[in-house]
Amino acid sequence: MATSYVKLLGTRSSPYVNRAQIALNIKSVNYEFLEEKMGSKSELLLESNPIHKKIPVLIHDDKPICESLIIVQYIDQVWTSAPSILPSDPYDRAIACFWAAYIDDKLIPLLKEIRTAEGEESKAAAIERVVEGMVVLEEAFVKCSKGKAFFGGDSIGYVDIAFGCLLGWLKVTQKMGDMQLFTEARTPNLVIWAERFCSHDAVKDVIPKTEELLEISKIKILQAREKSP
Question: Which Gene3D superfamilies did the record assign (predicted)?
Answer without folding.
Answer: 1.20.1050.10, Glutaredoxin (3.40.30.10)
